[in-house]
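Hi V.,

You were right to ask for the full record rather than a summary. Here it is.
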Amino acid sequence: MNQATPTENRKLASQTINYWKIVLIFLSRWYWVAGTVLISFVLAWLYVRSITPIYITSAALKLDDDQQQQISSLPGSPVNYNPFNQNKIQTEGIIMRSEDVILNALKNLDYKISYFLEGRIRETELYPKQPFQIDILSQDSVNFSRATYFVKPVNHSTFELSSSDDNKKSVTKYLYGQAINAGNMIFTIKTEIPANAKYSFKFNGVRDLYGRAAGGLNVFEQEKNTNIMGVTHTDSNPVFSANILNEIIKQYVKNDATLKKRSAKQTIDYLDSQIEFLDAQVHQAGNKLSSFQSDNKLIDPNTDKQLGSAKLSNLQNQVAELQLQELGIQQLENQVKNNRDRIQLNLNLEGTNNTLLTGLITQLNGLIINRENKLQNFNADAQPVQDINRQISEVKQAIATNIRLLHERNQKTINYLKGQIGQASNALTSIPAKQNDFAKLQSNFDINQRMFSMLFERKLSAQISAAAVVSGATIISVAQPSFFPISPVPKKIYSSYLFMGLFTGLGLILLVRILNPYLYDIETIEGLTTTPIIGIILKYPKKVQPGESVLSIERPKSIFAESVRSVRTNLSFMASDQDTKVICITSEVSGEGKSFVSLNLAGTLSIIDKKVILIAADLRKSKLHHAFGSDNHIGLSNYLSRQADLSDIIFKDERHNIDYITSGPVPPNPSELLHHKSMTTLIATLRESYEYIIIDTAPVGLVSDSIPLIRKADINLFIIRSGVSKFRAATIPDRLSKEYGLSNIAIILNSFGDEKLHANIYTTNYAHSNSGTYYYSNYTGYGKSGYYNDEKKWWEFWKKKE
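Predicted structure:
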């Protein structure tokens, strides 16, 4: 092809995603991932070693079914409120966490002294083991030292003691068995301290462990819609956790039985007071009846009179029972209005079959118990307590309404019976007054006698029930120590840290790629510019030694030299109509390898007997003369300023068969000199003697010195260096082509090293490309093909350089 495709007809190369490249990107930095995974494992190991493990123990209790009574919604009470069904487990959990239950449970443990094993990272509680014996001789019940004491054996009879109160600054020696006075207490260490480890200990009060015991306690419903209550406890010591949990559930069961016995005792006390009252009534009625019989010498009324008397007596009995119930209703009303404790159902109301009132009282008692438990953990003004007070008020209002209705019903019944009594009395008017009075006294005596017998039977039944009272909860399973921690779980921690390290490594690779501003491969350039790429020059794998800049000649059998020859081949297709080709080489900024490419391109042309001259046209900061060992005292700047002739500035490198012109001293006006017609004359003169004129110019991204040379050149080569040039560099050739109407610009990717980390994930489809491409190879994977043997392998270090 003679000319590159015009800029206006070019399109960006067609590219498709190459998934294998994505895999290679991550494989290229596998050691990053391995490093982050290793660091994560180390962090996981340190975490597992440093954190105190937490263990869990569990137990289960069965609640009596009769405690789960169903109470319907009542007027004035909360809708569908059912504490014994919906909130029973929560209520019992509050009772179980109460201070009385927890403190009584702790008192059954050996809690007064805690022993610890001092490790390099953390300390471990030794409960229930005691590595040495400590006796407390005297101790203040509340105010004593809670400091940690550190002990260290000196010999078989002496040990050292220090305290956390002064950060172990004061160390004192004591004899075994010697009394030690510290912190409002006196104690002694009786047995010898083991010398194979570091130990410490501290003294505890029963309330010091309350938070530990109650904080780890959890109560829940074992199975849904059952009366099985599950209880768990978590702690750093599995044995302590199991022991305290067993003691707590024992104390809970014991406390429940105590509350039931207290209720039975209140019933018996009430019956005693009623029996005492009726006993006096029976005695009084009997005395009256006996006196009346003695005074009137009456033995028994006749049969007819007995029928009327029986009816009258029955009516009076009913009135008496209703009046007794009225007394019970008044007592219950007084309890509801004036008493904040639980309400005991009056005996006179138990036979009324008023299940509604009974249920309300049971509900009220449950709420009062719940409030007592809440007050152990909350202030009286706390919202949970206020909510229960509101519920108590609503239930009391419902009870008061029920009492009023019951009172009205009794009063109507009494009025009715009194009317019947009046009729019965009129029927007995024919009975002699003495016999009538006898019948009344006999009826009153019989009523009191029956009531007395009934209450006495009730008391006997209550005493039997009190003797047989058992707890409403039964222990199904006791807690056993579990030595498998729930936190931390090493397998879970190691696996989670493994994934964290893995994703950190992968994320680091992605982050480096995202933050990368540099160009690395040909696909990235092809995705940014329509300017054709003439070839790739590989990165030389070793440090370039002084005098070896022309590596295309110094290492002719190397893969590097072959990549330069590939560029040389593609140059022959550009400006093919020109006998002499003026090649201008530039880049965006310095350091991208313009001079290096110029030298090696000139070298590879010279070895095919092409007449080549290399011009250092970077008049500001040229380094080309260093490659030839020239002093740069005279050069292009002298010629352009008419201080030297052409013959004075052309030098010959006999070693590489390259003619060259150095830049010369730095002039004060380099841009103006390059715009001078003398530069045009120089190029025209050189065309007569050389086949290739290679001009190494200044970077176009920094100065405009090279623009006049670019416009005069037959071929313009824009150098992009892998890993040095930034993304914006790939757009400069398109901008130059558009700005100056050029169609002879091509790109060379310099120092390509097949950096897979920053490789583009797309592959160019050259069959569908319209960007004017040249054939070239990046030689990836061909280094060991056997065609390039000029470089020693790492295992051939012993061979001498030829």
